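Retry 2 of 3 after timeout on previous attempt. Resubmitting structure tokens to design endpoint.
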């Protein structure tokens, strides 16, 4: 089973429903729980990003913060370094904004100010500058990635940095990029695209590879809801709404491209961290 066979079957579809709303949130939660990437990202932040921020007063803007599950851990680490912290989360989903505020306020104290901007980044009119602007797995969802990067850089203060974490266009992401192309008529950006854009613009950056694993064992178990949610998030579509034959091909593809370690079946879940 290969991606070309799947794309041939996809070409027979009239349209495809994107993964969104409550199903997207549930699938994301299950997907993250099956990977060790988030904890490795936090380790990288703690070792490489946080020691470089101002110790007296530090400000953050997290673009596409979601429910703040990573941000709350970053905040906890920053509190051990900076005296006062301003942390702003930007998220278009109002329910996710509420969850972000709830989690971050619980983790904060009198020296921490937290707020949310419930808006789409492309329409955001924020004028403040920040010590660190974070885009963690959010650039894929921007209609115009080039403009989004330029806009994010304009929100970084003179001594600040833009931090972008973005996946490679490898086996794990071939499904999502195929469906994105079908839905939007174009491909989403991955690490290779961002690197090329920055080099063409002459923008200085550092790029670090964070090597992680995604446990897809449950994707190979018939009738597993956990496996269905992980597969849905990998493809970025609700697979249950696809023709049975195509759905079977996708699960077979995941199994065929995975690696076996004892009873554990996994896929590389690597991410590149850009400091711009």
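Retry 2 succeeded. Sequence:
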């Amino acid at each position: 089973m290969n991606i070309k066979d799947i794309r041939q079957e996809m070409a027979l579809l009239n349209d495809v429903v994107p993964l969104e709303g409550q199903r997207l949130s549930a699938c994301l939660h299950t997907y993250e729980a099956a990977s060790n990437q988030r904890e490795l990202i936090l380790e990288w932040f703690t070792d490489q990003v946080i020691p470089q921020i101002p110790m007296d007063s530090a400000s953050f803007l997290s673009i596409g913060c979601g429910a703040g599950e990573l941000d709350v851990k970053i905040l906890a680490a920053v509190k051990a370094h900076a005296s006062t912290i301003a942390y702003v989360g930007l998220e278009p989903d109002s329910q996710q904004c509420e969850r972000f505020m709830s989690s971050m306020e619980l983790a904060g104290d009198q020296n921490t100010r937290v707020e949310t901007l419930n808006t789409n980044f492309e329409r955001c009119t924020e004028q403040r500058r920040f010590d660190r602007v974070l885009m963690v797995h959010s650039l894929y969802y921007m209609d115009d990635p080039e403009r989004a990067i330029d806009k994010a850089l304009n929100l970084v203060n003179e001594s600040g940095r833009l931090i972008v974490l973005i996946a490679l266009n490898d086996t794990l992401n071939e499904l999502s990029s195929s469906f994105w192309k079908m839905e939007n008529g174009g491909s989403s950006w991955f690490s290779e695209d961002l690197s090329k854009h920055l080099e063409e613009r002459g923008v200085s950056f550092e790029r670090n590879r964070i090597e992680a694993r995604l446990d897809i064992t449950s994707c190979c178990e018939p009738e597993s809801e956990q496996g269905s949610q992980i597969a849905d998030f990998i493809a970025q579509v609700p697979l249950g709404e696809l023709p049975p034959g195509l759905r079977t091909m996708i699960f077979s593809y995941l199994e065929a491209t995975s690696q076996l370690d004892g009873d554990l079946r996994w896929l590389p879940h690597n991410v590149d961290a850009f400091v711009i």
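Attempt log closed. The longest strand covers residues 156-167.
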